[in-house]
TrEMBL record:
It comes from the Bacteria. It holds the Pfam family HxlR. PROSITE patterns: HTH_HXLR. Keywords: DNA-binding, Transcription, Transcription regulation. Residues 14-116 form the HTH hxlR-type domain. InterPro entries: HTH_HxlR (IPR002577), WH-like_DNA-bd_sf (IPR036388), WH_DNA-bd_sf (IPR036390). The keyword DNA-binding applies. This is Helix-turn-helix transcriptional regulator.
Amino acid sequence: MLKLQTISAEWETCTALSAVQDALYVLNGKWKLPIIVALSQGNKRFNELQKTVKGIAAKVLSHELKELELNGFVLRKVYTSTPVTIEYELTDYSNTLGSVINSLAEWGTMHREKIRSQLRQNAGQHAPAPAVAE
């Protein structure tokens, strides 16, 4: 009986680990989630997107957009105007990431404050804090 519980627990852990690895495989890298967040503010053309996601190279943005499109998160719309206009927008499927992105944003804010607090504490222990103009 104990072995079955252990096997069951190991299987659940393995399944959870596999699920996390699948999610990370699809959303890997430092650019995919920022691109999704930028597009959550509305449809954007390539140059607008590159300006919004600061620091991303055009080649990298192009590659990431193709991968996001292949995985069903981004839709590429081509308008046959003169000149041809291409816009990127999120699919309905990308909305399934809403709670994940919100949780990451909350955790990121909490973590940033924790690190800042530690830096302030460490600075106070080793040297007097610099005067701050108010």
